[in-house]
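#onboarding

Welcome to the new folks! Below is a worked example of what a typical request in this channel looks like: someone posts a single protein sequence, and someone else replies with the predicted structure as tokens. Don't worry about understanding the tokens yet, we'll cover that in week two.

Example request:
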Amino acid sequence: MKLAANTNLDDALYKWFTQKRAQGEPISGPILCEKAVQFNEKLEGPSNFQASTGWLKRFKSRHGIRELQIQGEKLSADSSAAESFKIKLRDIMNQEKYALENVCNADETGLNWKALPRKTLASRRELAAPGPKISKDRITALACANATGSHRLPMLVIGKSKKPRCFKHVNMSVMPIVYTSQKSAWMDSTIFMEWFTETFIPSVKAHQLKNGKREKTLLLLDNAPTHPSCDVLNEKDEFIKVMFLPPKVTSLLQPMDQGVIETFKRYYRKELLRKLLLEKEEDGEESLIRNHKKIDLKDASYMIGAAWDSVKEQNL
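Example response:
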């Protein structure tokens, strides 16, 4: 690209921009333009300089600046506690000789299992993009895998209904997920203890015996109030130790929050759209809405299983 007409202004503004972003401060286009005018005055630049829309577009193109949605809670996290915990965890792994293969992490997430995208590709002839009513049907999913990505447990899905009609005559043992229920579709200590004793411990044991022998396993969890205490969990199996992350470090240290759950949700959205748009052959303007209403929790369970399997071992 062509260089800026005033390279001093361009360099000064970009340095200011990178310093503010390093501190996590939100920056908008109008703020950049206003700061550019201030810098131009201090640097005694052209008196007729205007930080126009075209100037802003070229400035962003020169430096590869794009707009992102602000996500997560990292700025509110306790970074010092996170650093201390990393040292503590490294020492424990060295002392107890935990192999990465036997270090696991589990984390819950909410999933709006019938929600359709709010963005779409559109032709230049379309003035608007009408869509269906936003679905708020939510379940809770628990993802768990080891640090090497070689062992992922089936997703635990928590719905509101104890016996969904769509599961009638379905052999739950062959389902790609483990289903349970709670009146608000949230995790609670009873459900977590049931998952820990009936799913996690047997699955880890079977995986290790398949590879030769039982070994000590470390499970990392956040300190959510729905998780039973470490003392209670550690009594269930002599080979398994549970360790909680410190408060206010989940966004920094929770492994599943570093892109795994986000990747899973994107794969799930892809599975949902594929089922609605590619597998169905009904024609007509209302086909999408009609097919969307037919999606039930059984369909969602298979799509969750497919999406979880699609998460690559490298990503885990």
